[in-house]
Amino acid sequence: MAEHRRRDWFAPPDLKTATHAQREIAETCETTDRFGRVGRAAGADTSSAWRDTRGPIHAAIATLAWPDAVAGEAAAATRIPPFPYVPGYLGFREAPSLLAAWDKLPEKPDLLFVDGQGRSHPRRCGIATHVGVLLDVPTIGVAKTLLCGAVEGEVGPAPGDRAPLIDRGETVGVALRTRARAAPIYISTGHRVSLETSVEWVLKLTDGRRLPLPIRLAHEAANAQRRAMTDQMASA
DNA sequence: GCGACAG
DNA sequence: ATCTTGTCGC
Question: In CATH, what is the architecture of A6-234?
Answer without folding.
Answer: 2-Layer Sandwich (3.30)
